[in-house]
Structures are given as structure tokens and as C-alpha cells.
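A further point concerns the way the authors explain their paired sequence and structure data. Since the whole study asks how a given chain folds, the encoding of that fold should be made plain. A single example would do more here than another paragraph of explanation. An entry of this sort, consisting of the sequence and the corresponding C-alpha cells, reads as follows:

_____
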Amino acid sequence: MSKCIRVMIVDDHVIIRDGLRLMLEEVGEEFQVVGDATDGESALQLVNQLQPDVVLMDLRMPGMDGITTIEHMRQEHPQSAILILTTYNEDDLMMRGLQAGACGYLLKDTSLDTLLNAIRAAARGEILIQPDIMARILSYTTSQRPSIPLINAPVKQKTFDLTEREREVLVGVARGERSKDIARHLGIAERTVRAYLTNIYAKLDVTSRASAVTTAIRHGILPADEGK
């Protein structure tokens, strides 16, 4: 029997919290809602106590907002994966959330199957970003790249010194592949893929696959069509 996925819900609307709890509990023993919080500050206190596998995070809440909460949670509790679940379909908000360390971005009108698959992927340490969301990430990061000045002044660009193998692993991540899929394609062990990911995170100064992809595309490490 597979391990039960422990889920915590952070949302300031009681009807959303109760609805999510009911849906997840009706699925069966695969998911367990271990607690919920109404704002960022209480979420940070609760996550320390509950140690959930996955946190479903709203973005706009009274007091500490979701993005600030994600930043603190990733620093203090990196073992808990964070999935954004929001009503706000805004590119800038989405990018800020992913770069803060969330492993996925879902709208509240998403299907139950998509939500469950995203929670499963997050618990495995993977990302599951819907194709339309990935297309928006690619479009946004491409449009936000700084333009080259027209004067002949030297342009100082940030370098990350990724190896060729690390780039290959990152390409697989951008395509939404799981670690075992990347391992199979590259002919290496899955634990080796995880080791490469650790190095990539350190070099890019990120904490999740989603933020690694967005950072890599923004800085031109990956071409903007890799996730398509």
C-alpha cells in the first residue's frame, strides 16, 4: 500500500477549505487533510506542527499573503511541497509564486483529477504544470528578458556555469518529465538525476523545479521553446 499523502490547506475562505477537505477525504485513504489555516502567519505555525507532504496555498489573504508565506515556508520547511491554488489568473502573480518556491500553479476551477495528479506529483518532488500554464510561463519569461542596450557599453550578464549534463536534466524538467523518465532518457540512475537537480538548484539559487525552469528561461540558459 502506498504512503498516505498528508495535505494542509491554506485559504481565508471557509467554504474553500471545507470543500477541499471533503473532496480529498472522499477520494479514499490516499489523501489525509491534516489541518488548515486562514492566513500566512497561522500557516507557518501550523506547518511546523503538522509536517505535511503538500500544502495547498491561496495567494491573496489578509495579513501575510501567500507569496510571502511560500518564501518563509520554503526556507523553514523545505520538505513540504507547496501547490498554489488560487482564483487569480495573473501572469505576474503566477511567476512570483513559482519563483518563490511553489511547485505548481492551479486555478480553483481546475478539475478534481488535475488537482489530485498535481498533489501526487508534488508529494513525489515533481512538478505538474498544465500545458496552458507552461505556455504562459514561457511567454512571460521571454517577454521579460532585458533588452540589449543600443549603446556599445559592456553588458554584464549573470552566469550559472551549468554542466552539459545539468542542462540536459533541466531540459527534461522543463518538458514536465519525472526523474525516472529523465533517468531513462539519459541512461543514468534516478538518484543521479536527483543529485544533478540538487546542484542545479544550488547554482540557480532556487528551491523547486518550477522556479528552476522559469529562472533558466529568463536568463537564456534554456531556449524559450523547451517546455512546449
Remarks:
- The chain is about 50% helix and 10% strand.
- Strands lie at 5-10, 31-37, 54-57, 81-86, 104-107.
